[in-house]
Q: What sequence folds into this?
């Protein structure tokens, strides 16, 4: 299956012409604790770049729920990662998806969603869903491409993160990714969103 082909079929849901690289995957998944049994939810799992990194960090602990809207990507992911609970569907339903699995909330949400490709309303709804699915001390990480950082959708998304989390830290640029990307590390969702 070609990542480029899936991008051409649906550029607003795939959002990139190539999967995220290993360095970006390690940086994005860094908030996953190395101890305990955390609940990790992955939004926009795609072909599994972040999935593999999450599985390495969990090392058999906790729960890992991967949400992917693309049916072909989800089917492939389920075969490649049988210990991951792969859910095919829209990430805006993430709270319902984790509740259906008997989980109270996510300790960490790792997002591979193409935020800058979404309309303002869809971006708002997805972020509200993610915030609503986190525990009180939860962490949320996502990334943005450096070349798009100054676009209106990217600036809007950054402001939305700052309004919904007590702490938003912009990580280092991962120059080795294609294209180069930067990571947002967000902690402690603000109730009421």
A:
């Amino acid at each position: 299956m070609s990542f480029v082909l899936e991008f051409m079929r649906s550029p607003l849901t795939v959002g990139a012409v190539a999967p995220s690289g290993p360095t970006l995957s390690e940086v994005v998944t860094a908030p996953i604790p190395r101890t305990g049994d955390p609940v990790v939810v992955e939004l926009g799992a795609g072909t599994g770049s972040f999935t593999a990194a999450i599985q390495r960090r969990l090392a058999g602990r906790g729960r890992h729920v991967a949400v992917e809207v693309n049916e072909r990507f989800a089917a492939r992911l389920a075969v490649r990662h049988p210990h991951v609970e792969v859910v095919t569907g829209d990430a805006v339903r993430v709270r319902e998806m984790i509740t259906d699995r008997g989980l109270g909330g996510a300790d960490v949400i790792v997002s591979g969603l193409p935020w800058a490709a979404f309309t303002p309303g869809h971006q708002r709804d997805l972020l509200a869903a993610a915030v609503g699915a986190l525990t009180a001390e939860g962490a949320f990480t996502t990334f943005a491409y450096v070349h798009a950082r100054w676009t209106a959708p990217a600036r809007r998304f950054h402001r939305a993160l700052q309004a919904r989390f007590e702490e938003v830290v912009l990580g280092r640029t991962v120059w080795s990714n294609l294209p180069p990307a930067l990571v947002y590390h967000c902690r402690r969702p603000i109730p009421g969103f």
Summary: Residues 120-133 form the longest helix (14 residues). Strands lie at 39-43, 63-68, 85-88, 106-111, 134-145, 165-174, 181-189. Residues 1-18 have pLDDT under 50 and may be disordered. The two ends are 38 Å apart (CA to CA).
